[in-house]
From TrEMBL:
Region (Disordered): 38-58
SUPFAM superfamilies: PHP domain-like (SSF89550)
Xref: InterPro entries: Pol/histidinol_Pase-like, TAT_signal
Protein name: Phosphoesterase
Composition-biased stretches (Basic and acidic residues): 39-58
Domain of life (superkingdom): Bacteria
Organism for this UniProt entry: Plantactinospora endophytica
Amino acid sequence: MKEEAEGAQISRRQLVRYAGVGATLVAAGPLVGGGAAYAHEKDDDDHKGNQQGDSRNRVWRAGDHHVHSEYSGEFDTSTNPPTFHKGADAVYPIVTNAIMAKNFGLTWAMCTDHGGPNHSKVNLEQAYPDLLRSRKLVPEVLQFWGMEFDTPALDHHTLMIPHHEDEAQQLFELESRFNKFDAYPTDPGRDTEAKMIEFLKAARDMRQKPLVIGHHTSRSAPGWGVYGQDTPREFRNGNNAAPEIYVGFEGAPGHQAGPLNGGARGGYGNYPTHGGFDQMTARVGGMWDSLLGEGRRWWITATSDSHVHWTRGGSDFWPGEYSKTYVHARQDYADIMDGLRNGRIWVTTGDLISSLDLTARSQGRTAAMGETVTLSRRNRTDVEIEIRFRPPAGKNGNGDRPEVRRVDLITGQITGPQSNLDADTNPTTKVVARFGPRDWRKQGAEYVIRHTLRDVGADTYARVRGTSTDEAEPLADGLESPWSDLWFYSNPVFVHVR
């Protein structure tokens, strides 16, 4: 369109004025030029943990798949059909979010607005044209199309649409057919697990395959080890129906700035997060480990869930200001989505680190996050685990230079499908080693840890986490500043013994 072509030529000053973010840029602090988290392209040649990835021009790229714009609005139901009004729940234009994502070091992001009665038409006719303009104005950030899906029978989920010519029509089809609040009057038949399975199967059968990732999965849970809207059974049934579509949940939910305004991290008002992470992730041997113990490829992410910045009375950080999801990929829509689908992901809060590699090596074979190293069963064998992490190059969004105080290596056995769909524990999962600064050595810009798993004779997975705190396990969160309680988590690497 002519407007888009002209928009691509405007100056930075005009861009800020167009986005309407002059005040919010001041509130958020000075521009940080990408912060500490830009993809490490220049010095990746000597990044030995990524040699295979380097050959494909893949590097760690920070992003956020859960960001709200002014199209998370409200509906006036005194009219028929209901009239949509922008800016009621989230207030920023799509391009504002893209500018701030770039400012805080993200190279990809996704607009995920709430649905509602006939919102599929709002997305198609109003929000999508704004996304196209934002892509022109902020080309440095790959901006995915999709929404925060009002998921049948569950809490919200990311619905990420692949980047292609008919992406707008694809979202319109899925939202209009399956979003539980799109019909008007509301149709109770849309809010069932059967409808969720129907939705996932429809997505699975599309030529351009979307992604579905759970949001704030324990926000409605009333206590530790119990669940609310989202249950183990529903995760298993959905993943069984569409294992390449339904691939994970937020390990660290958004709304992390809540304590800065007297609220709860993540908006978890019933039972809190632990170190900013949902209990399904933070509990060693808990829900996430139960899924991994079945051999499921089920991944965690970290997002902002940005609606209103905390300096304006909200509970949110800007995209990338606090939480980041790193994907090992090229700066390409399809490859970033492939990384999310296949677990080439790690997450951090507060820019505690800027790069993380986890590899397993044995019998001349090597696997990284999301991958599997296959061993011969003829002889029990050792598996060498290598962990590489890189501290941030500069200060984080709070002006701090955080330091890692401990790294934990966590392993669990893969024992196959659970007969009990409600199972939420993996008793084999444990922290097998803890490492402090005296246990890692510096190699270039990175720190390296090596550990040997002895006599591995069964299918296993390994994952790591690290923290700026001295907590042996992440404690339940109160009103402490989120900047004082930082963690990173990897996704797992798998060991298969045949």
